[in-house]
Structures are given as C-alpha cells and as structure tokens.
Specification:
The structure is a homodimer. Chain A has about 220 residues and is an alpha+beta fold. Chains A and B meet through strand 5 of A and strand 5 of B. Chain A binds a DNA duplex (27 and 27 nucleotides) through helix 4.
DNA sequence: TGAATAGTGTCTTTCAGACAATATGCC
DNA sequence: GGCATATTGTCTGAAAGACACTATTCA
C-alpha cells in the first residue's frame, strides 16, 4: 500500500492550560498574530513534528508558552471537522494541563503576539472552534476533580484545607459546606498534617498538610 | 504560513465494534492480508479522506465491515506514537460502537481477508498497538455502562430485566445479585413494562419492558 | 476586645449490598 | 409434580448533606 501518495491532513496539538489565580479558574489564551482569525484569542497549539510523540508535542507547546513542564498532562479529544480551519484540513488533538500560576512567567512565542489568562466563565469570540474545545475541557476538568487527586497539581508541597476547598469552589463555580468538605477530604487518607502551621497571617493560623499519593490517582472526592 | 510544505503524518480511524454474543462480550477483528503484520488480527480501520469528518470515516469503516450503521459512536482516544506503524508516521483516532450481533452479517472488505468476533477476555498477539487500544476501550466501555444508558443499544425494542442483567454481567465479567440489580434498574425510571410477556419459553414467562430515554443519557446505573 | 479565619459534631436520609423464599408456565 | 426461570422485601452499614458554634491569633 503506497499511502505516501495520498493527500494528508495537517495534525496539530492544542493545549488547554488551566490555573487558579485570584480564586478564579483561568485558562491561558494567545492572541493570534496572523490570519486566519488574526487578533482573536486562541488556545495555544502547533504542528506535530514527524519524529515527535503527541504528548511531547503538547509538552513542547506548554513550555514555549509558559516556560514550565507539566506534572500532569491529559489527552482530551481530537477535533477534525473538515471545515474547522479555513486554510485546509487540520486535525487537532487537544490536551489539558494544570499549572501553578505562581511559577509562570508568560512569554510570547514566535507566531503569537501576546498571551494572557482568561477566566473560563467569561470567554467569547475565540478563534476556530476553540470555544467548543474549551467547553469540553471544562467538563473533563470537573469530572477529573470529582474522581481524582488532580487538585494537588495546583498546590504547593504544603497547603491548608481551605486552599483545597477554594480551588474546588473555583473549578465548580459553587460553594461547599466547610465541615462536610473537610470531613470528606480527611476521610480519604491522602493528606497528612505536617508539624508546622501557617505564619504571617493576622488571624488564627491554620494547620498545614502534605499530599501522600500520586497526582491523578483515582479516588472519589466529591 | 505555508504549512502545505511540511511533511505530514497519515491519519486513520480505528473502530472498536463491540457486541454481545452467547452471553459474552465480543469485539470484531479483521485478519490482515498485507504487510506489516500480515496474518495477524487487527482492529478494523482505514484512512480518513480529506473531505470526510472523523465520525463519518468511522461510520464508513463500520459499514464496510458489518453493513450496519451505528446508533451509538464514541471517540475514544488518539494514538500517535512515532513508531507505532513500521510504514511511517500514522496517527489513529479510535472510536467505539456497540452493535446488535443479530443484525450483523459479516463481510470482508477489500484489504482484509477475514472478519471475526473475538471474546475480549481472550485476546493475544494483535497487530500494531491494538492490544493496548482494546484494553483502553474496555475500560471506557465499562465506565459508560456504569454511568449511561448504553446497554439499550444492544437490546431490541422490547426486552426483559434478565437480558439487561446478562449484558452487564458480560461487560463486567462478574455476577450481580438479581434482586439488587432489578431494584436499581427499576428505580432509575428509564424503562416501563409493556402489556406483553415473553412467549415460547418452557418456564415462567417474564415481563417485557421498553426503554424510555435516549441511548447514551447519563445516569448512575451501578 | 474586635476582626478574621480555623476548626469541629450530630442528625437525617439515601443508597449499596447481603441475603432466600415464593410464583408461574410448560411438560 | 418436576423443571426452569421470574419475581419479590428486609436489614444493616456507609456515606452524603443539612446545619452553627467555639477557638485562636493578631492588631
């Protein structure tokens, strides 16, 4: 079979980069510098190189945009409708990751003019079918937060229970009862208190905990 | 950006076709007629045409192998490791579907020599990375059976509670308690009895039910 | 002592899961 | 009556969810 002779679609990876900033779930978008959709905001992405695995390509895009490596990266879905890109047939494999926004210093890559964090609850007018991709990724993110220990990819080594709860409240965009939430988290046996407490706060300092487990482990949280 | 000038990977769709036959969960495999892996069994699939959406390509492959259209088709995962196909870079988007084996008359397509149903619990020595793909698809199938009404895509319009239970037992490869299972299914409010009972059986005939809802609806079943 | 956040327990309801006897139709 | 399968209810333990007050630190 001489499949080299057939015309082939282009293949890209897009990476949805989530973070929590100011108690709000945010996603990193880049402003397109070239047509099509010049001036519109888009999910960062780029072409997959011929000798590059898909996850490697996604990691590379992440690094180009943020300068950090993901400790969690998950393939989401592949979008390949014939007319999703006016330049021709482009099939994109979407990935998502979560980064700690403190560690990030945004830098513009070569073919984009700007990169910025956007609240996921206030998005509009994105390039391509990226709005649809983001809606899908938010569903997946919530699902992952219900069933896995993904939250710890957004926390420092030591953290408080309130910090966990605030992240959950940002991701689900709703409040949880403090007592029930803490009871549930503690019952999972995935965190343990450390011999330190919060410092430099003008109120009762809280107990610090550390995560014992692997990020992404399956476990019922909510 | 003249992205037409870059070398591009080939893109295929593979389709995992599940059915229940003889109270056993089976998957359709085809015997490869050509190299690489000539003579090995493989998941059916083929190249995506340039003017063809991904789901359409998957539906087409399904029709070529079985002659039926899917009433349920779901994208699973995209496999794209650099060396997964010795002929070159091939990225494959996998889909899964469930068909009623009564309706199927298998036919060989052009580039395969034979198609057969295999028990998912007895697979070995498949072509490419297809073993890995099947393991992944079984996990997803089970997940879907826990949380959705997918089972009804395998049943006729009228069915018995025992038929539902037997399908679940095949999919999860374990037995369920009859009383608890029926209690649970009935509590969901997604089926209703019809004014007929089973005929032509040499034992107490059972009540027939019909499904009220959409296949794939989310709902907690197990 | 006031401000700010940390930390904590009980009750009710729901659901999962264990468990066995009777009913019906056909031969 | 014997065979084969259908149908049915109770109890227990676990977990979810509603709900409000006290504790601690700092300024």
């Amino acid at each position: 079979m001489k499949f080299k002779d057939y015309p082939k679609p282009s293949v890209t990876v897009d990476i949805i980069i989530f973070t929590i900033k100011d108690d709000d779930l945010k996603v990193l978008l880049v402003k397109r510098g070239v047509e099509p959709f010049a001036g519109k905001w888009a999910i960062p992405g780029g072409f997959v190189k011929m000798n590059e695995n898909l996850e490697v390509a996604a990691q590379r895009e992440l690094r180009e945009e943020t300068g950090v490596n993901a400790n969690y990266l998950e393939q989401l879905y592949t979008f390949g409708d014939v007319n999703r890109d006016p330049r021709g047939r482009v099939i994109t494999i979407s990935y998502m990751t979560l980064v700690n926004s403190n560690k990030i210093k945004l830098k513009a890559s070569t073919d984009v003019s700007e990169a910025r964090w956007f609240s996921v609850y206030n998005l509009s007018n994105l390039a391509f079918d990226h709005k649809k991709i983001l809606e899908y990724s938010l569903k997946r993110l919530r699902w992952k937060f219900e069933y896995t220990t993904l939250v710890f990819s957004l926390l420092q080594k030591k953290f408080t229970l309130t910090q966990i709860q605030k992240i959950y409240e940002s991701v689900f965009n709703k409040k949880f009862d403090k007592r029930n939430f803490r009871k549930k988290i503690l019952s999972l046996g995935i965190i343990k208190p450390v011999k330190e407490i919060e410092e430099m706060v003008s109120h009762r300092p809280s107990q610090l905990y550390t995560f014992i487990g692997e990020i992404g482990d399956t476990i019922n949280i909510i």
